[in-house]
Amino acid sequence: MKIIKTIDEVRTEVKSAKQNGKSVGLVPTMGFLHEGHQYLMERAKEENDFVVVSIFVNPTQFGPGEDLESYPKDFDKDKNLCQGAGADIIFAPEVDTIYNQGFNTYVDVEGDITKKLCGKSRPGHFKGVTTVVSKLFNILLPHRAYFGQKDAQQVAVIEKMVRDLNFDVEIIPCPIVREADGLAMSSRNIYLGDMERKAALVLSKSLFEVKDLIEKGERNSKSIIEHILTNINSEPLVQIDYIEVVDKTTLESVVELQGDKLIALAVKIGKARLIDNIQVKV
Ligand code: AMP
Question: Ligand 1: which of 40, 132, 203 to mutate, most ligand atoms within 8 Å of CB?
């Protein structure tokens, strides 16, 4: 496995892999990797001959007062995890490699899809995400790119960007990997103290409960949201940002469940902002 910091070098490596007939899978990450990332890499390795993992804490997707400066890092651990998962390259550029001096060109998916849910409390976040993902696609020209459904809105936004701008890459959404007790794995879980970690379980517990209710026939979004709200409000350490039932592709709110829907939520617990969701098909 090679660790590469420059665009020229990573392009040369990927080009040569392609010239040798290899298919290329990309797994974009911000590092501090866990089993959720590992799943993405293993899936990429299964479906491609050559896997590039990017590790880049992208400043343009952080808002003022967010955790850009304190975002957790452990490059040695990341390296081992990537190697174990069969990555061929870690692409870990510096900020000024990706954002050259005077950088002034952005990719922005307009409309509700980026303005609602996380876009509401994190204005500009998705513009940063789509800009850096476009750059990674342009630099690496992968055949496939792997993203976690943990960030379901990110998947919907990137799929839309790929359709709208005709990127020649297949987006592969991957399921949420959870801790044994249900908490969705996240690099930001490290911010949680013991009590907060316990309180955070209310997120997956509420989502699993409404999944059961839906399996038993519940179709009304308002009742689903009420159920989650009551659960979460019983945890004083958890502050709700949003709880929504939306279409999986357009992210438009739905009144009655039918088709592929997403029940998504975001909360603050201490200094951690956590998101979670479940997909339902009825
Ligand atoms: P991040 O490093 O947090 O930007 O995440 C990089 C990629 O890993 C994104 O596509 C995330 O959706 C995905 N990811 C993060 N956590 C999980 C998880 N628990 N399960 C599956 N994918 C995840």
Answer: 40
Here the tokens at position 245 are 């039932």
Q: How far is residue 257 CA from its own chain's centroid?
A: 24
Q: Which two tokens stand for residue 34?
A: 């866990």
Specify the pTM. 0.98
Residues 6+ apart with CB under 8 A from 41: 27, 51, 53, 81, 82, 85, 86, 87, 146
**pLDDT one-digit tens code per residue, 39-49:** 999 999 999 99
Cβ-proximal residues to 121 (8 Å cutoff; 6+ apart), any chain: 241, 242, 266
Q: What Å distances lie between residue 54 and 3, 82, 176, 200, CA to CA?
A: 10, 10, 19, 29
- Catalytic status, residue 34: no
Question: Which atom of ligand 1 is nearest the CA belonging to 149?
Answer: 12
Ligand 1 atom 17: residue of nearest CA: 36
**Listed residue (208, 194, 188, 210) closest to 268, CA to CA:** 188
Amino acid making up residue 268: K
Is the distance from CB of 188 to CB of 67 less than 8 angstroms? yes
Choice among 37, 125, 143, 227 that is catalytic: 37
Give the pair of three-digit tokens for residue 203: 């997120």
CB environment 23-43: b (16+ within 10 A), e (fewer): ebbbbbbbbbbbebbbbbbbb
For the segment 249-279, what is each residue's pLDDT rounded down to a tens digit?
A: 999 999 999 999 999 999 999 999 999 999 9
Compute CA 33 distance to the chain's CA centroid, rounded to the nearest angstrom: 12
Check pocket membership of 155 for ligand 1, CB cut-off 6 A.
no
Those residues with Cβ within 8 angstroms of residue 245's Cβ, 6 or more apart along the chain or in another chain: 221, 224, 225, 253, 254, 257, 261, 262, 263
59 within 8 A of 99, measured Cβ to Cβ: yes
